[in-house]
Amino acid sequence: MAFANLCASLSKISALPSSLIISGHQNLKSSTSPSPSVTNGFRVVGMATKKASTKGATGKKSWLPGVRGGGNLVDPEWLDGSLPGDYGFDPLGLGKDPGFLKWYREAELIHGRWAMTAVVGIFVGQAWSGVPWFEAGADPGALAPFSFGTLLGTQLLLMGWVESKRWVDFFNPGTQSVEWATPWSRTAENFANATSLQGYPGGKFFDPLGFAGEIKGGKYTPDYEKLERLQTAEIKHARLAMVAMLIFYFEAAQGKTPLAAIGL
After folding, report:
1. Nearest CA to 241 among 75, 147, 111?
2. Ramachandran region of residue 51, left (φ > 0), alpha (ψ -120 to 50) or beta?
3. How far apart, in whole angstroms, are the C-alpha atoms of residue 82 and residue 52?
């Protein structure tokens, strides 16, 4: 029986191409220590696959975690949970097209950042001057070294230039870093996207304190684990700020301010 098994094994080996046997023998002969060859390559691929599939294996987060079923209203099939802050809320199906989904996330991020800045400005401005935020522009005591027309024209010019650059960079990422952006830094490297993620440039200029990376030897290295946590935190605060601004608008229509609403 053992002899029969041995003959069967030898027949299988003899059926293999001679070039494969010779090359395998030469590889074993020339390699006296483990090297990053096929075995290590498979190991790396396995680790990458495991890391990439961890999020999907645990299940997508839901904006209605206590509800089972509901179809695409509760758990849209076109949202896979890969975006920071993705809780499956898309009742109108705006994100079905991946191209539009990318654009909507860009718009949400930019509007959210403006809203966060505006909320802080409204509270600080009124607490400092006592003037309601929706009347500050018409207040005669407002500090304005130039006329409203000059301010509006300058803002349209500067914001138009910045927004046009952002628009072009959205469709051609990494093409809008410039050498003459600031007088103290004349290298485009400081303004390049150090994270390769749209909307999160990082780098020495946009992340000088190293919240989402590390600066060593003048080089910025992103930390993607920190960056992912900060992305989620930012989009949550951005959404809260946009809701707050909507409430501020309704209050302003009634002649009220946020500080007055909380009794200050």
Report:
1. 111
2. alpha
3. 10
Tokens linked to 150: 């000059």
Show the tokens assigned to 16: 């293999």
DSSP assignment, residue 242?
A: H
Question: 188 and 178 in contact (C-beta within 8 Å)?
Answer: yes
Residue 213, beta-bridge partner list: 222
Residue 225 to residue 213: CA distance in whole angstroms: 9
8 Å CB contact between 237 and 120: no
pTM: 0.67
Which amino acid is present at 127?
A
Tally Cβ neighbours within 10 Å of residue 213.
22
Q: Is 212 exposed, middle or buried (0-12, 13-18, 19+ CB in 10 A)?
A: buried
User: Could you count the other beta carbons within 10 Å of the beta carbon of residue 236?
Assistant: 14
Per-residue pLDDT reduced to its tens digit, 39-93: 333 222 222 223 333 344 346 787 777 777 667 788 888 888 888 889 888 888 8
